[in-house]
Amino acid sequence: MCLRGRDEEPAQVYAEGPRRHYPSDVSTRQSMEKRINYMQNLKKEKRKLGKRFARPTPIPDPGILWP
Predict the structure, then answer these.
(1) Where is this region: Disordered (predicted)?
(2) What separation in angstroms does the CA of 15 have from each of 1, 12, 26, 47?
(3) Which of 8, 42, 43, 57 has the smallest set of CB atoms within 10 Å of its CB?
(4) What does pTM read for this prediction?
């Protein structure tokens, strides 16, 4: 949408405003979200492996197995 003034050139108007005010803030926010996501995945993996290796598999008696 263009607005015309009396002695001005047409100006472009965005209703939502500029998307990025400070580019450095966007990169820090993105890196923070990435780090949070990595830590969450690390916790999930640790929990999964903890459940898997919590109890060792029982060793069968040697008399049960056939030679």
Answers:
(1) 1-31, 46-67
(2) 9, 10, 21, 46
(3) 57
(4) 0.44
